[in-house]
Write the structure tokens for this entry.
Amino acid sequence: MVEEKKSAPPSEKLQGDKKESGNSAPKKVVRRKPGSIKSKAKRPAAKEKVTETVTEEKKELKAEKKVVTDVRPTKKTDRPLTEIQAKQLARQHERKKSFTSVEVKATTKYIYGLKGKRPIVGLTAYDAIMSKLVSKAGVDFILVGDSVGTTLLGYETTIPVTIDDMVHHTAAVKRGLPGCLVVADLPFGEASFSFDRLLDSARRLMQCGADAVKIEGGKDVADDIEKLVATGIPVMGHIGLLPQTVKAIGGYRKFGSDRVEADSIYTDAICLEEAGCFAIIAEMVEGELAAELTKQILPPLVGIGSGEQCDGQILVTHDLLGLTPSPLPSFVNPCATLGLDGLNALQGYVQEIRSAKLKR
Ligand code: KIV
């Protein structure tokens, strides 16, 4: 079915007067359906009381003994909270109060259908423990991102990540039995050799537990994505900043601020929609452009560093939890300081062993 796009491309919206001067032609598009802190235990008041009978004394002794055993596990939590920890606790309590669980279905159709209904939430996971945690938190989908390279494997970029790495981590995430959709990233180069190689790599990801794959790129990879979708492999698109091209683009930056780039990103989104992507990630896309794309395309646009007007948001869980040692991207507002808390806890343990305080 050939159908004319109802709204103008974003560059026309953003620069309406230039459109009149004939700088941008309207596009025809083909659409396809596609622990809480325990307070220090107090000694019972009985301790101060003068006891008159032996039985009472015995009772008291028992009570005292009980108190002593109760005190042990809380010993460490007697340390005063730092200001940051106190703020976090308060935020956690607030969140707990307002947390409403939403039914999540592990299908691409479900994610596609969320557009316009409620914001979609995605988070990354690379192992079974994190998979369980983020799934319990209620995310709509888990991305086994090639960000595993920079987050867990010690690489400076995602480029060295291999398909074997991705299979290993995807299988681990699946073993965490998440109740949501699992999307696995096709790593660097896999979409560039040949369609057969791409198909084989996507097959490996699906066979080790992925429900869908994600591919970086727009118009250049749209034909191959269309063929993958036709073979029954659901694909999530990824436009804007493509971290796998970081060596070519010379660093991480915002995309779509000028007209040429905005038009190019618009075309990428339309091509991915036509190829049958069930959702598209927009990374570091200029906020107004992302908002406009969100209105214009059929699949949900899930943003990362692309403003608040997208159909949903995705973040790297390690960044969000404060587990990333390197400087964070500007758009991340961590909701915990797990790295720092873990370090403090470990230093405390090392200190205790060294000063032989720990009684076994
Ligand atoms: O690999 C990844 O984690 C990603 C997200 C940043 C979207 O692609």
About this structure: Strands lie at 2-4, 28-30, 120-124, 141-144, 181-185, 212-216, 235-240, 279-283, 301-304, 312-315. The chain has 15 helices and ten strands.
